[in-house]
Amino acid sequence: MSKNILITGGGTGGHISPGLALFEKLSEDGSMNPFFLTGKNDLRFSTFGELDSSKLLTYRAPALTRNPFKLPGFVISFIRALLRVKRIIRKKNISAVVGMGGYVSAPALAAAKLSGTPYFLCEQNSVPGKVTVWFEKNCAMVFSTFAESAEYLKFPEKFVHCGNPIRNSVLVSAGKTEAKKAFHLEHCSKIILVIGGSQGAVKLNELTLGLKNKYPHEFKNTGIIWSTGDLSFDEFKRRSQSEPDAGSIYISPYIKRVGKAYRACDIAISRSGAGVMMELAAAGVPSILIPYPFAAMDHQDKNADAFVKAGAAVKISDSDAVAEKVAPVLFELLSHPRRLKDMAESAKKAAMTDAADVIVKHIKDTLINRG
User: Which CATH number belongs to the domain containing residue 134 in this structure?
Assistant: First the structure.
């Protein structure tokens, strides 16, 4: 008889993508039957459209707040969300809950604790988030993307450094020429991939436009695969097309064939959320990482440092993310294939593509031991 597993997470693609990767792996295992619980507002993420609707559950998980005037409303909303998950655990006969991080997972983890249901935590960032810190004590295990996370946790015996689950769509097998054709960029000698994150990043979008406008000669034979994010797509598509020479650009709010995008590009310019970083590593893509400066506990900066130390990336601060300062770094890298190759090899060494397998095995072993 298969075990029903509830995966919960939301808020950003950094919590959702690895959750979906774990969902895929659990679905492939004949002894596991996964469900995915996310916030109602997170249905805007197009990746959920690929999920069987009978396996996708939603609730209203309140955002964490320190505002004393909002606390009463937060408490009421949190309790309502908690009670909904308790009903789900009972009705679906859930054997274990896996929290992917973010405030969306907090009520579900609290419900698991109160229901006596074993729960596991997946921590994507080098500095553990609040949910991981709050629920670490009673969890079965903490699965971490970065080894550095162990320094911040109080129960090292529960810590498992396994990497971040990666979606099957990322691990596609495709030649560079075939991958370029998927984006109509087969005529380009070099390809730059720009990823601002699930919400997009106006700063990275402005940077991309600035690079194209100020360095047209350098981009004569260089194409761009550009993910703007939903909120910025219309504006930057219009602005890029209004240029006399728009150049070779594939622009989209969200790259569905992300695996082929990784295979097509020579280098990526990206924020340093753990999810996209581990995908870049798995695909062996060198990167210029521009940490989001307002990330909780500055975790994106520390994430980027880990890849710089490994030799897989170059870090540029958000304040320096302007065309005049990024262009010399970018074109220097593109003009030195040997260094790009070394960075790509370092990226692959930093990847842990079997993370989902490791997590599934630990969940199964824990449930077997519990009887």
Answer: 3.40.50.2000
